[in-house]
TrEMBL record:
Keywords for the protein's UniProt record, in alphabetical order: Membrane, Transmembrane, Transmembrane helix
Species, as recorded: Epilithonimonas pallida
Protein name (Swiss-Prot/TrEMBL): DUF4126 domain-containing protein
InterPro entries for this protein: DUF4126 (IPR025196)
Pfam families per record: DUF4126 (PF13548)
Presence of the UniProt keyword DNA damage in the record: no
Segments passing through the bilayer: 12-38, 50-72, 78-96, 108-127, 158-181
Source species, domain of life: Bacteria
Keyword Protein biosynthesis: no
């Protein structure tokens, strides 16, 4: 049992960080970079670059720009069009970075499926929420969505590093909610579109 415990813990941290990437791409990377730079979390040799000062500064600047950009009308909608692939990449990298002694193929296969899949699903859910907000509030409600996403990314990043089991549970709940409400929204839109034609 003690042999698999590090892998289970790495999975919990990785899923939590991937979920955080679904909210914001750079904030979780900044959190991991800061935590590894300060020695709070160990870093796989292949991901040593994440704990370097250049990465810390770059992800810090990118985080501030990304957060502010989501409060600018039109720019927020453009960011939504590129957020899903970027979140998938970030989620995969952050998930993979948590595994110390795993072969390259299983590490990246798991990272793409679990990390990338989690990040993409949550990112798509919030992109849909922003689209609904734009349509129903003429974009006025988008600031509330942006604030919620930033808070979610920050909370999930912190929990993933310090309370990974709780972060994992929250990530699973988030995935279920996104899938449940996404399916409901899809059915509603399909019904409305069929009524038009």
């Amino acid at each position: 049992m003690s042999d698999i415990l590090p892998y289970v813990l790495s999975t919990f941290i990785g899923i939590g960080l991937a979920a955080a990437s679904g909210f914001r791409v750079f904030l979780p990377m900044f959190a991991v970079s800061l935590a590894s730079y300060l020695g709070w979390i160990p870093m796989n040799d292949n991901f040593e670059w994440l704990s370097g000062l250049p990465t810390l500064i770059t992800t810090g600047i990118a985080t501030v720009i990304e957060i502010l950009a989501y409060y600018i009308p039109v720019v927020d909608n453009f960011l939504d069009t590129i957020s899903i692939p970027l979140a998938t990449i970030a989620g995969s990298i952050l998930f993979a970075s948590q595994f110390m002694e795993l072969g390259t193929f299983p590490q990246w296969a798991l990272a793409l499926i679990a990390g990338g899949g989690t990040a993409a699903t949550i990112s798509a859910g919030f992109a849909g929420t922003r689209a609904a907000s734009t349509a129903t509030t003429a974009g006025i409600g988008n600031n509330v969505v942006a604030t919620t996403e930033t808070a979610g990314a920050g909370l999930m990043s912190i929990l993933s590093i310090f309370l990974p089991v709780l972060a994992f549970i929250l990530a699973i709940v988030l995935l279920i909610l996104v899938l449940f409400f996404g399916r409901k929204l899809w059915r509603k839109m399909k019904t409305q579109n069929s009524g038009i034609f």
